[in-house]
Amino acid sequence: MKRLAKTAGATALLAGVALILERFLVAAPHHRGPKSDHFDGRRFYNQQPGWQSEGSFLKWQMNRRRGAWRDWVEAPPGPAPEARVDDGRLRVTLVNHATTLIQLDGVNLLTDPIWSERCSPVSWAGPKRRRPPGIRFEDLPPIHAVLISHNHYDHLDRPTLRALRRSTVITHLGNGAVIPGGARELDWWQELAVGDRVRVTAVPAQHFSSRGLSDRNANLWGGFVITGPSGSVYFAGDTGWGKHFAEIGKRFGPVRLALLPVGSYLPRWFMKPAHIDPAEMVDAHFELGARMSVPMHYGTFELGDDGETEGIDELRRIADRRGANIRILEFGAGFEIP
């Protein structure tokens, strides 16, 4: 009996230590604030139904049918971006994954930057990068603001953010607690000035948040619209399909440039609540009234069952058939939007 008691006590102790480690070293602190139409005082929620449950995640993991990925793609970095863009010009550089450099009206903005080898709470495990960043970190121009869409590890990368501590970080409610140096937090439809001529507005998305097991939807997720004299740019972050595309188009359209995700969309039965597929990306392009859209969030980390080029290949076919003005950029390539 004493041995059983000791075993039970050790098991309880280990469980308690694991819970403490998960809650305080991995999981994000919970946002606290007034209730709203997307926050019940404890958890945030989407504007429409959709849920990836723990049970469905386990089912997916036990029945995965992975698409084809190369182990590593050795690709040289793209050229150093211009230091400044102004006089009505708008330029975007696709680093890779959801990391893009947006330049307009004298302001440089970096979205969801990740230069780490893994998108994970630890450096020795978790999804590993399959290609180098398209731009060397040291070749970045001065960054006036960093936009963080939500707290998943492939979007909120603490090591990269430590290297960007001199830049203003803008994110959604609750995420500043895990960002080195803190951040300016916004609720959906709130805005913040960056410089004298550019404003950043937080906008809704259909997604979820978590960095551990105990913080599901404890902090807000979303996209951003950047507006200035040169027009408006929409960065979606991660999102499933929803009415927010039409609402953003109504408020900010015509959007001069939309940056939309196209990866991590399979298997559809599991990913649909949180990730649009290539056909829905084209639908979003039209709902936004976008003059041009650029896909991102593909070909870098294997996070879904879609293959390395599967989403982008399907997007090409659908965009051509439907006459959508979608520009597919090489990683590391900069492009000036007409």
Write structural notes for this entry.
The protein has 338 residues and is an alpha/beta fold. 23% of the residues lie in helices and 19% in strands. It has helices at 2-26, 54-62, 158-163, 244-252, 268-271, 278-288, 310-322; strands at 90-96, 99-104, 107-111, 145-148, 168-172, 184-186, 191-194, 198-203, 223-228, 231-235, 257-261, 293-296, 334-336. The strands form two sheets. It has a seven-stranded mixed beta sheet with strand order 6-5-4-3-2-1-13, with no helix packed on it. Strands 7-8-9-10-11-12 form a six-stranded mixed beta sheet. α6 (278-288) crosses α7 (310-322). The protein is globular, with a radius of gyration of 20 Å.
Given the helix and strand composition, which structural class is it?
alpha/beta
The N- and C-terminal alpha carbons lie at a distance of: 78 Å
Radius of gyration: 20 Å
Describe the biggest sheet? 7 strands, mixed
Please give a quick description of this structure.
With 338 residues, the protein is of the alpha/beta class. Helix content is 23%, strand content 19%. A hairpin with a 2-residue loop joins strand 9 and strand 10.
